[in-house]
Specification:
heterodimer, A: OB fold (Dihydrolipoamide Acetyltransferase, E2P), 2 domains, 6-stranded mixed beta sheet, B: mainly alpha, MetI-like fold, globular, ATP-binding (chain A)
């Protein structure tokens, strides 16, 4: 059998029915996952959702309770970590404190008896822009530099898959944004498959081609960042990935291409293709709409709202100016019993009448809404622990 | 007096000056203690070592440095034996202590505390009593001798010159074993401390970078435990080289170490200058050996 090149098409990581139990606690429920070769794949979830355990099972640092790990067509489930064609960038880097940067990066090459270590290490240190630091010890470097050493130490081995366990968690926000772009650049340059574990949804969406959102040991939804964001399929994904307004509504008519809903006496439309499959007349469902898709119009200008848009009444409760946009919370009958509807308005032409207490119309293109099964916890994903602990 | 001029400046300066002196005040008790009980006897013994005379006529400082050469010429076999026994005991302690410390640090889990208590448990009884107990254990016809004899181990050790005449007591092996036993905790404690500090993720990282468990040990664990190895070997070697209890109780006159010579010169022969000179030679020798050793081991991360 011929092996596929790491950068070629095909599958690099294939997890089949993999699970992990610790005693009676199930960290990861049986899980199937396929990561295409050369892609940047993110496992996104809150602390304790099983994302790190999944990564460690790929690396061989954790033995799965059931299922198998296949890397590039080879079943490696029974192989110890040192025999697997993967390398890991650890959460706190785990650089060898007694070795200098050069020897840290050379570690994997030396273990495999690779020739011309000096040239390889030199090239790799140049790639991560640390050429001058070769003879320093890890503790003499800043957090961002240590992070780059950790990436270089793993990448130099040309693994089939590079595993990144919250690699940016210890960095401050500004450096983290910078390193996200840096990692993305490196991934594009070397073409190696990256599997990246993170609790930062923005990080996952910025960097990854495909994101798997994990919750309580299961993958909630998997897809391209834009698809996940525009069409979440569970309330957890809707709330964890950005912010969503979720309106409880009743299905009035599910016959046509457009499903007609009713919430607090207001009729709302939703394309049938964006509804849960089983929506029938009389059912309840949750209508989701992202805050930035909503337009705010003062009630005095109600007649300027174009026809065909979903439109609900409300009163501005709070307005928060954050520079690029203004974030409003609007009380509305359709959102009774919740904290109100969130609306983000770009600060292009600000209407001075839009202040707390103002009566407004909220309206949006029905195609931007999404329907969710009403039999879920509406606030799932809003109250998760984003702590840095092992997950 | 110019009190009015100095008064405004004084309050801010006073606390700062008092603050600067605090470290010295804290050092004072220790320094006084060392001056009284370390430096004073040292000076006294240094003066004794260059005196001549006898107990009846009294001793006078005559700067008779030849005492040093005479002592060295007469007792160099005991010096060499001390270094040899102490080295052997240190190596044995390291070989026995390292796996144990490794096990306690990485594999013991909830038994860790209990095992550490067991390691220091011997300290709850006196050094002398424990060594006396070994005298009984290793005695002729005792269980250890008969067991080793029936396994023909004693024949082997006899042939190697470690034991003599199918007995353990009064042999080099007994003295080295006694030293090893008595100083083992001093090896294990620093080893454990340095091993326990190693981040477990470094082992994972090494494994992830194609290092097999043994390679991981050689390239990661052992280098990182070197401070413990150096501290442990020093804590074992230095007291073992000057020890005289083990040679006294478990050895014969043929196993006398330099500690025994110093002890008998001081307390039995009453030749104080020779005893003092021997003490200084021992001190200088240990200092020299430790210096060379630390240079070799690399002190960068050690002390």
């Amino acid at each position: 059998m011929t092996e596929t090149a790491p950068s070629g098409s095909g599958t690099d990581v294939c997890l089949a029915g993999i699970s992990k139990r610790y005693g009676t606690f199930t960290a990861v429920h049986p899980l199937d996952l396929t990561v295409p070769a050369g892609s940047f794949f993110a496992l996104l979830g809150a602390s304790g959702c099983g994302k790190t355990t999944t990564l460690r099972m790929i690396a061989g640092l954790e033995e799965p309770s059931t299922g198998s790990v296949v890397l590039g067509g080879q079943d490696v489930t029974a192989l110890p970590p040192y025999k697997r064609p993967v390398n890991t960038v650890f959460q706190s880097y785990a650089l060898f404190p007694h070795l200098d940067i050069f020897e840290n990066v050379a570690f994997g090459l030396r273990r495999r008896g690779v020739k011309s270590v000096k040239r390889h290490v030199g090239e790799m240190l140049d790639l991560v822009q640390l050429g001058e630091m070769a003879r320093r010890r890890p503790h003499e470097l800043s957090g961002g530099q240590q992070q780059r050493v950790a990436v270089a130490r793993a990448l130099i081995n040309h693994p089939r898959v590079l595993l990144l366990d919250e690699p940016l968690g210890a960095l401050d926000l500004k450096l983290r944004r910078q390193m996200q772009l840096e990692l993305k650049r490196i991934q594009t340059e070397v073409g190696i498959t990256f599997v990246h574990v993170t609790h930062d949804q923005e990080e996952a969406m910025t960097m990854a081609d495909t994101v798997a959102v994990m919750n309580a040991g299961r993958v909630e939804q998997l897809g391209a960042p834009a698809d996940l964001y525009e069409t979440p399929r569970t309330t957890f994904v809707a709330n964890f990935l950005g912010t969503s307004n979720l309106i409880t509504a009743e299905v009035l008519d599910a016959a046509g291409d457009t499903v007609v809903l009713r919430a607090a006496g207001t009729k709302l439309a939703l394309p049938a293709g964006r509804c849960p499959a089983a929506a029938r007349t009389g059912d309840k469902l949750l209508l989701g709409i992202r805050p930035e898709k909503i337009t705010l119009t003062h009630a005095d200008d109600a007649d300027t709202v174009p026809a065909g848009r979903n439109s609900v009444r409300g009163r501005i409760a709070t307005a928060g100016f954050i520079g690029v946009s203004t974030q409003y919370v609007v009380d509305s009958p359709v959102a009774a019993g919740t904290a109100g509807l969130s609306v983000y308005v770009q600060n292009i032409e600000r209407d001075p009448r839009l202040v707390p207490g103002a009566e407004v119309l909220l309206h949006w293109n029905p195609g931007h809404g999404f329907g969710l099964d009403a039999a879920q916890r509406i606030e799932a994903g809003t109250d998760v622990d984003l702590g840095e602990g092992p997950s | 007096m110019t009190t009015t001029a100095t008064a405004p400046a004084a309050p801010p300066a006073a606390p700062a000056r008092r603050g600067r002196l605090v470290p010295y005040w804290l050092l004072l008790p220790g320094i006084l203690w060392l001056l009284l009980f370390f430096v004073a006897p040292l000076v006294y013994q240094a003066s004794t070592s260059v005196q001549t005379g006898s107990l009846e006529d009294g001793f006078q400082v005559t700067w008779h440095v030849a005492t040093y050469w005479d002592a060295l010429a007469q007792y160099y076999p005991q010096f060499l034996r001390s270094v040899g026994y102490a080295t052997a005991a240190t190596v044995l302690c390291l070989l026995l202590g390292y796996p144990l410390a490794y096990l306690i640090a990485f594999r013991a889990g909830r038994w860790r505390t209990l095992l550490m208590v067991l390691v220091v448990a011997p300290f709850f009884t006196s050094f002398l009593i424990r060594t006396l107990a070994w005298k009984t254990i290793l005695s002729d016809g005792g269980p250890v001798v008969s067991a080793l004899g029936s396994l023909h181990v004693l024949g082997l050790t006899d042939a190697l010159g470690l034991t003599e005449g199918h007995r353990l007591l009064a042999t080099p092996l007994a003295v080295v074993c006694g030293l090893t036993y008595n100083f083992l905790p001093f090896m294990i404690l620093p080893l454990y401390t340095s091993l326990e500090r190693i981040d477990g993720r470094l082992h994972e990282a090494a494994g992830d970078l194609y290092a097999r468990p043994l390679t991981t040990f050689r390239h990661v664990t052992f280098p990182l435990s070197l401070p413990g190895v150096v501290a442990g070997t020093l804590l074992t070697f230095i007291p073992a080289a000057g020890d005289y209890i083990n040679a006294e109780l478990l050895g014969s006159p043929d196993q006398k170490m330099i500690g025994n010579v110093i002890q008998s010169q001081f307390l039995r022969v009453l030749d104080y200058p020779t005893a003092a000179a021997l003490s200084f030679i021992l001190m200088a020798a240990i200092l020299a050996m430790v210096t060379v050793y630390l240079r070799r081991a690399g002190t960068e991360d050690v002390v």
